[in-house]
Amino acid sequence: MTATERSPTRSLPARTVVRYAVGSLGTGGFSTLPGLVLVYYLTDTLGVAALAAGVLVTAAKVWDVVIDPVIGALSDRGLARRGTRRTGMLIGSLALPLFFILTFAVPAGTAPVAAGLWVLLAFLLTATAFSLFQVPYIALPAELAAGYDQRTRLLTWRVVVLTLAILLFGAGGPALRSLGGNGYAGYLLMAVVAAVVIALGLMVSSFVAPAGGPAASATETPRASIAAHYAAGIRALRVSQPFRALLAAFLLQGLATGVMLTGANYVATYVLHSEDAVTLLFVALIGPALLVTPLWGVVSRRIGKERGFLVASILFGIAALSMVLLLWWPGDWIYLPVALVGAGYAGMQSLPMAMLPDVISHDARRNGPGRAGIFGGMWTAGETTGMALGATVLTLVLAISGYQQHTGGAAIAQSPAAVAGIIVSFSIVPATLLGLSLIPLTRYRLRKADIDED
After folding, report:
1. What angle do CA 280, 286, 291 make, to 5 degrees?
2. What is the C-alpha to C-alpha distance for residues 366 and 452, in angstroms, rounded to an integer?
3. Angle of helix 112-139 relative to helix 14-44, nearest 10 degrees?
4. Which of 94, 145, 349, 354 is a good FRET partner for 452, with 20 to 30 A between their CA atoms?
5. Are 359 and 240 in contact (CB under 8 A)?
6. Phi-psi bin for 335: left (phi > 0), alpha (psi -120 to 50), beta?
7. For residue 50, what are the CA distances in angstroms to 38, 53, 361?
8. Which residues pair with 46 in a beta bridge?
9. For 106-152, how does the pLDDT look when each residue is reduced to its tens digit (9 = 90+)?
10. Could you tell me the CA-to-CA distances from 294 to 61, 153, 285, 339 in Å, in that order?
11. pLDDT above 60: residue 57
12. What is the DSSP secondary structure assignment for residue 328, as one 8-state letter?
């Protein structure tokens, strides 16, 4: 029985909620740590120019965008044939940690061009493994939980774990890097420890997907070309107005958070004058987020997910904009607006993720089931696009403002213009992107009555 066939009032088993949520320990770790340190690793340890570093990271993410719709369609086909999405999730769980370590294992003394190519190839493989897990993982809530509120419960606890993972990896990763000396050895130590934790989270959550069985082969679907997989993704966008609106808002917000995440190391080093301050930034960001994530679930039940999402977005944007004052008054006061950003970010993660299964079930009732993987693939591609372009935007600002790359990991003096560029990319740029995201968000039409209707 699928979720769309169950009563929306049927209680979701606690073990399902827990096992699904644990997956975000791995997905949160992978999304956070490379976003936080990879560009900084390229510019300040491997000596790659800022703009080139942004291009390398973006190229790997573009590959992710290319393959996500195909993986989503193949996941739907696997579900139809075998009754499970677990196979791809397990392959991704095993491969991702190995390639993740390889990404940060560039030998000391490697020339910048060779080092950049090493990172590009290793991160391409890592991103591919991540998509094999993430795309079916995103599709599962529509099949595991029925009803507006049950999906909110499932996704709220996923985001609680996701938020904890961001704190663990965002604060712990740089701490491990410092323990290893902030150079080549420090990054390798960080990668090995992170890979173990990521593997644990992904593997546990892979088994929340139904196991399937031989009887599922009766529903086998015909093979389709790669072009047909892309066409299916475009068709999903065309026929579902709620999906278009939600994905556009989430993509723009992913771009905003991607800029800030990539810029955090630079703010810590060149604005707060301490590489270790990045740990405090993440504590300030995630501490409040951990506390308020369950509250966004309460808010959604009172005023609706879509209105709660709007409130969270506005809070994030105002808090981000306030940090432009760092141009004139750099100091520890930054931790207060960062905490407000964290509170908004918690809602910006939990609520749209809970809205996506609603969109999928709404489409299934009107256009037929069997496309959850396609929606998941398009969603992951959009999220990846936002995060990738976030790194690109930051490196463009750094290049324009005259940022100087170097090797070895030790900070060097940067010009006032370069420091100003870092601050602008941490404040005005994400606030502007958040403002733009409100346009499609206000056009999202689904409400609770639309989801729980008979």
Report:
1. 130
2. 14
3. 160
4. 349
5. yes
6. alpha
7. 11, 5, 43
8. 407
9. 998 899 999 999 999 999 999 899 989 988 888 787 777 766 667 67
10. 31, 9, 16, 16
11. yes
12. T
Q: Which pLDDT belongs to residue 11?
A: 66
User: 207: how many CB neighbours lie within 10 A of its CB?
Assistant: 14
Q: How far apart are CA 207 and CA 203, in angstroms?
A: 7
- Euclidean distance between CA atoms 298 and 349, whole angstroms: 15
Residue 279 to residue 274: CA distance in whole angstroms:
10
* 3-state SS class at 46: strand
Statement: the pTM of the whole predicted model exceeds 0.85: no
Could you tell me which of 261, 257, 267, 263 has the C-alpha nearest to residue 313? Answer: 257
Question: Which of 149, 144, 166, 199 lies closest to 23 in space, CA to CA?
Answer: 199
**In this structure, which amino acid lies at residue 117?**
L
CB-based contact 410:310 (threshold 8 Å): no
User: Which token pair is 171?
Assistant: 């604060």
Separation of alpha carbons 334 and 386, rounded Å: 25
Q: Which residue has the tokens 């391409």?
A: 124
- Least Cα distance to 41 among 407, 387, 421, 426 occurs for 407
As a whole number of angstroms, the distance between CA 177 and CA 196 comes to 16
d(CA 279, CA 257): 17
Name the CA dihedral angle for 282, 283, 285, 291, rounded to a multiple of 10 degrees. 140
Tokens 């993986």 label which residue? 71
- Whether 400 contacts 265, CB under 8 Å: no
20-210+230-451: CATH superfamily? MFS general substrate transporter like domains (1.20.1250.20)
Q: For the chain, what are the domain ranges?
A: 20-210+230-451
- Least confident stretch, 257-271, 340-354, 403-417: 403-417
223: buried, middle or exposed (CB in 10 Å: 19+, 13-18, 0-12)? exposed
Question: What is the SS3 assignment for 221?
Answer: coil
Buried b (16+ CB within 10 A) or exposed e, 264-291: bbbbbbbbbeebebbbbbbbbbbbbbbe
Q: Is 240 helix (H, G, I), strand (E, B) or coil?
A: coil
* Amino acid sitting at position 80: A
H/E/C letters for each residue in 352-409?
HHHHHHHHHHHHHHHHCCCCHHHHHHHHHHHHHHHHHHHHHHHHHHHHHHCCCCCECC
Task: Please check whether residue 42 is in contact with residue 347, taking contact to mean a CB–CB distance below 8 angstroms.
Answer: no
